[in-house]
Amino acid sequence: MACIEAHGLRKAFGPTIALDGVDLRVEEGRILGLIGPNGAGKTTALNAILGLTSYQGELKVLGRDPWTDRHQLMCHVSFISDVAVLPRWIRVSRALDYVAGVHPRFDRAKAEGFLAKTDIPRARKVRELSKGMVTQLHLALIMAMDAKLLVLDEPTLGLDILYRKQFYDSLLHDYFDGSRTIVVTTHQVEEVQHVLTDLMFINRGRIVLNCSMEEFESRYVEVMVYPARIAAARVLKPIHEREVFGRSILLFDQVDRQQLAAMGDVRTPSIADLFVAVMGNQAGQAKGAAQ
Amino acid sequence: MNTPSSSVPESAPDPQGRAPSAMSATRPMYWSVRRELWENPSIYIAPLAVAAVMLFGFTISAIAAPHGVSCWFGPDATHPHGEFQIPYDMAAFLIFLTAFFVGIFYCLDALYGERRDRSILFWKSLPVSDLTTVLSKAAIPLVVLPLIAFAIIAITWLSVFLLTTLVLLGKGGNIVALWAGVPLIKLLLALLYALTAMALWYAPIYGWLLLVSGWARRATFLWATLPFFGIGIIEKIAFNTSSHFGALLKYRLRGWFTEAFVHHVHGSPPAPDPLTQLTPGNFLSSPGLWIGLAFAAVFLAAAVRLRRDRGPI
Predict the structure, then answer these.
(1) Per-residue DSSP letters for B114-130?
(2) B308–A70: do the CB atoms touch at under 8 Å?
(3) Which of A50, A112, A235, A242 has the fewest Cβ atoms nearer than 10 Å?
(4) Contact criterion met (CB < 8 Å) for B38 and A103
């Protein structure tokens, strides 16, 4: 069964259309990266999935309607929002007490185990912790919940490199077990490239790219073209072209690797490069349509 | 439409043997109320502080001017049923007033604060329904504060009683008259009754404040009070009367007392038995109580609805 299934998901805030007919299906056990520019509708999509906002269209998360069944859904779904949202007045020990009190699938011993690896004093209030510590605390709470779906909206925003690295390491090693599903949005795409199993680009409320990482690696090829072969390479219709140190780098979609290898140095593009290419083409099309 | 959902979450066997249904429905409520007390210690600190100041003042006066105490129960006591009630009434009045104001400011912030500091996103990530959340917040002024006020007033009264006894022991006053003259058990029963009546009567006020705190994006106090000034001004302009709406507000503030207790003719001595002053039949049959409770229910239902919609501000 699909973990998340949406058909024609729409959401408008007055004249602004945040989601413009999104269809998506996320199977169990996937780690999906939802990537898009600011204001693309990422957070709105996640909020709809989490029952934080109403929507038009059809949406089922673990078979439930998130808008009407949020609190039942939250027994099986956990999430961290883009900013530190732990209440600043709460003591670390009381945060554990409270979550253990209300969450039927919270394993307190597990949370204590995660916290034991940090320097977070149990008697401190959240306001007295550093930003990194607050995130560690939140992550300890979240990872000790036996959830089927974990949603992370910019989970590492404002954290230093060390914490960010630890964050994804511990997510993969201590939490992900192949049966859970994780959806993550981030601007730090290079951090998640090796974590994801699926990739989705969203722009202006629409999904503009949706593929698995295997597909991504076989479909897209980046070639640093030899200057002499540039004209021949352009004939193959690259989806994007840029110049680095005077050499042209062309990005191809579904073009034979053997053929491209003859024209230059071939490699798999980074998600960021593909993102720039796809978004650039989108902008170009929009401009063309306007003219 | 729910065919797939019925097969999934709750009926799914839990590998750890802790199905969500095994958690009793009252547990989220219990923890939500505790959480409110963690966040707002003023709920019990403010009435405790008032009681402490009160007791301190009484102790000083008992030590500095013990004749005040002994003249009520001393060998030459003239008013065995009169002034002795003053410290009891005063303690109850001040703590009632404190509880009322704590309740008001608590409600104004209850659903606003969590949106302002964005922690609503954390609370909503937990399996606690909006209904449970709003009811747990409403339970603070309607249940928790009255119980706390009862306990603190009872302790204050006992302390005053023991202090009076000690002073009289030192002065050789009439302890029998004191112990016979202060019907503590009956006073406590009357107190419990008064607190219940007050909580039920003020329910629409607290409900309204919770609704405003869940709705307003800023200045909750102004949003909560300005409409009433507006209605008063409209009444004045449109009908050139200013008493009807004002009387309604006054009745809402004082009605629980006038409906639930016997009226005293000013200056007459209070009845020796406090229980004879209670008029529960009159209170329960006053339309003001039931209309108020109906408004409270509507306000709370609207607050539950609003909380589902609202995110951080």
Answers:
(1) HHHTSTHHHHTTSS--H
(2) yes
(3) A235
(4) no
